[in-house]
Automatic annotation (TrEMBL):
It is found in: Cytoplasm. InterPro entries: FabA_FabZ (IPR013114), FabZ (IPR010084), HotDog_dom_sf (IPR029069). The active site is at residue 52. Its EC number is 4.2.1.59. Involved in unsaturated fatty acids biosynthesis. Catalyzes the dehydration of short chain beta-hydroxyacyl-ACPs and long chain saturated and unsaturated beta-hydroxyacyl-ACPs. This is 3-hydroxyacyl-[acyl-carrier-protein] dehydratase FabZ. CDD domains: FabZ. Belongs to the thioester dehydratase family. FabZ subfamily. GO terms for biological process: fatty acid biosynthetic process; lipid A biosynthetic process.
Amino acid sequence: MANEKGDIIEVMNILPHRYPFLLVDKILEVLPGQKAVGIKNVTINEPFFQGHFPGRPIMPGVLLLEAMAQVGAVAILMDERFKGKLPMFAGIDAARFRKPVLPGDQVVFEVELLKIKGSLGKAKGFGKVSGEVVVEAEMLFALA
């Protein structure tokens, strides 16, 4: 899928996540073991909007981080060295939420894998809506 468009079926063939926790709708670009770019289309139909917040729906920051991590997981799992592994969060550093993400927004996540040593790794990513950064973080992960 390097530099090809990955639709939701392809995403589901790579990631183990499923509804309601699959938070990537499309992969725009992937360089296995290096980086990935993916999209999350945010709709009012998301189950978390029922309680976050009634009358003022805002996508929870922790789910923005999860979506970003899932995009990074595509870059990991497309690398032949890590086929069959399960990337899991081991830590989050320098997370910043710049603007709220609302129903109707399309978040474009870009995640770069900085280092993978043994079963541990580090990535840096950000998400943008209409060209503006809404979230950024460094993520530590373990490969199970």
